[in-house]
Amino acid sequence: MNRTKQVGFMAGAAVLAFSGLAIAETDAEAKNRELEARLAAAEAKINQLSTTNNDQWLTDQRAEEIRGLVQDVLADADTRASLLQGGVTAGYQDGFMIVSADSNWSLKINGLMQARWVWNSRADNGNNDRDDDNFGNNAGFELARMALNFSGNVVDPTWTYNVRLQFGAYGSYAGNNIDWAYIDKDLGDGLSLRMGIQKTPLMREWMVNAENQLGIERSLVSYFFQSGVQNGLSLAWESDIFRVRAMYGNGDGQGNVQFDDTGNSQPAITGRAEFLAGGTWEQFDSFTSMPGGEAGVLLGVGASYENTKRVWNGNDDQDRHDRWRVTGDAQVDFGGANLAVSGTWANQKSDVGNGNDDSNPWGWVVQGGVFVAPEWEVYARFQFLDYDTSSYDDMYILQVGINGYLGGTNNIKWSTEVGYSFGELNSLEAVNGNLDGGGYGAGITDWRRQNGDGDKDGEWVVRSQLQLYF
Fold it and tell me: What is the pTM of this model?
């Protein structure tokens, strides 16, 4: 290429380059001018808002209020972070629970209230139609039970505890406001050891908690034969279809009492075995079979022996009782219907001062219920008791009622029941001081003695109960 062409080519390239720069500069300037215009408009708007004194602008007072609210939220967040430090969880699962992250520590709180209205009608004792606290027609309200239950585990899941405090009108099973209080140790392979105040493992109706009964209250038969609670040691074994519990305790009526050497605390041995022919163990914690629930069958037997010696009139004579009890029971769940039967026999020999007594009382209970609507269950119960003594009439009682499971569970349950005793309940003093000498039974059942000579009419009991359980 000659020099003239080279000079021309370079000149042309220079012209193109300068033209491109000029075009690029022109575009950049245009964009800058656009941004400057938008910025100016935004500043003008801000100036306008900042100088406008109306409710739509953030005043200093409102800024201070928001600043305080933010501080409160941050403080609450700090509190929650402290509570949940290390992964602690809290919530509701069959009770209000707090559980550590490793599950080695836990606390569950449950509560129970049973508020009742009761009407009782019974014949007088022949003294001019006497109508007072013991005879005639009486009605009123009572808080039969108000309990708090604390349970959980400590150190690791194999160490558990269970404490129930009772503040209702009739006190507690064990006395001193304690229904039960015990420590459990899981030994593995289905074995567990329990020590403390606990239900005596004898009758199934007694083993089922009050909030899970079919009727408003347990039967008079169960209160007559039951061993209540004892302070002692029990060993249990459970598999998929069998479970057994054996207990060595201080004896009937020896719940929350101090051990002494006067003979009031004497060895008592009790055992119960159960066979699960269908269903799950958990469903038989209750006598009710909810609609859609699993069908199942539970069979059980129990026995107990006790020899007690109590000081009589402050001298060397003894009130000695040798007591045997044997019981058998069965419950069938149909998933919306249930049926339960039980029978119990006892032998009691006693030597009170220079007297003696030997009796063999026996009785049975049959009860069942069926749901007639998703939340409504009708039920009936019949109970019989032969005291095996001429001092008391045999007992025949029929009860019918209806349960309303408001919300589909027994957390809120409204029950109404009518009961009739075929004959005079002058024998109720035996229930009031049943085989263990306690007085808890008769009062809370709402049946009353008639103090007659056996020729009086029957007794009516009508009651309605609202239960709250969580």
Answer: 0.76
